[in-house]
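One thing: can you check what follows?
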Amino acid sequence: MAQTLQFYPACTKVLACKLLKKQGMELEGMCGEEEKQTIVAKSGNRKCQSHFANAHQTRFGDMKNRNEKGFSLIELLLVVVIIGIIASLAVPALLKAKIAAENGAAFGTLRSIGSTEVNFFSQFNRFGRLDEINPMMGGGIGTLVGAQIVRGKYFVFEMTPPSPTDTDLRSGYVITARRAVGSDAVYQYEIDQTGEIKQIFP
């Protein structure tokens, strides 16, 4: 048979010649002396097999290295979804803790107001208005805005009635601390001349 093996690489040509020889086909013109000697020599066969094994491992290693260079789109989407779930759970808890801290601070301020009112009464025989109590506390209640005192962003302290007379203040007082978002009262505390603090809302 007149067949040519010019398209085979070196080792592939050797193995092809060996296969043709096993099938009883004529090797003349197809396999040179070098290929024939390599066919007979087992070391040559092992050399070619080793060559193919190394090439396979090299290609597989290159593919593996290429795959390890970055993340796939699905992996990135999974990370984004997990971060979103964690944020949806953590943010409400953080806001709740912040509100609780602000409420606790307002409650403590009302206690300080109650003790300051007692001292004011002992000096002036009446209870004090917010604009009189706040300087005695070093401005610890907050910022005076009209008849109200604003503490931070949300809490507003005011008296009931807003502008009590001296006669009213001789018998007692009522101060309200209200935490509001917009126009809706979220938390509201109240203290009177007895020093008792009550939670009005919620």
Q: What stands out?
A: The chain has six helices and six strands. The first strand starts at residue 143 and ends at 145. The mean pLDDT is 76. The beta strands are 143-145, 148-151, 155-159, 174-181, 184-192, 197-201.
